[in-house]
């Protein structure tokens, strides 16, 4: 199928490009499905399961909740910081005022 692109106007070219990109995506998905089927068939032919080869899926996140605070603002004990992320303004101000990190530790 030959398409003479010299005779196409701007809108027709854009439509052709869009259709070609859509078809390219479809072909890639089809190829992935076929490859996945081949891999599963090979694993089964060898006497293993997918989980034997690749594990039980994604590992669970190690997040267990919020982190306990490590530092407390001496001027306002309600303000704390865990030591992770951006330093709070009160922490930077205390360091500039001459306090040491261990002075702010809980």
UniProtKB/TrEMBL annotation:
<feature type="domain" description="DNA-binding protein H-NS-like C-terminal">
    <location>
        <begin position="60"/>
        <end position="106"/>
    </location>
</feature>
<dbReference type="GO" id="GO:0003680">
    <property type="term" value="F:minor groove of adenine-thymine-rich DNA binding"/>
</dbReference>
<dbReference type="GO" id="GO:0000976">
    <property type="term" value="F:transcription cis-regulatory region binding"/>
</dbReference>
<keyword id="KW-0963">Cytoplasm</keyword>
<dbReference type="InterPro" id="IPR027444">
    <property type="entry name" value="H-NS_C_dom"/>
</dbReference>
<dbReference type="Pfam" id="PF00816">
    <property type="entry name" value="Histone_HNS"/>
</dbReference>
<protein>
    <submittedName>
        <fullName>DNA-binding protein H-NS</fullName>
    </submittedName>
</protein>
<comment type="similarity">
    <text>Belongs to the histone-like protein H-NS family.</text>
</comment>
<keyword id="KW-0238">DNA-binding</keyword>
<dbReference type="GO" id="GO:0009295">
    <property type="term" value="C:nucleoid"/>
</dbReference>
<dbReference type="GO" id="GO:0001217">
    <property type="term" value="F:DNA-binding transcription repressor activity"/>
</dbReference>
<dbReference type="InterPro" id="IPR037150">
    <property type="entry name" value="H-NS_C_dom_sf"/>
</dbReference>
<dbReference type="GO" id="GO:0003681">
    <property type="term" value="F:bent DNA binding"/>
</dbReference>
<dbReference type="GO" id="GO:0032993">
    <property type="term" value="C:protein-DNA complex"/>
</dbReference>
<feature type="region of interest" description="Disordered">
    <location>
        <begin position="59"/>
        <end position="94"/>
    </location>
</feature>
<dbReference type="GO" id="GO:0005829">
    <property type="term" value="C:cytosol"/>
</dbReference>
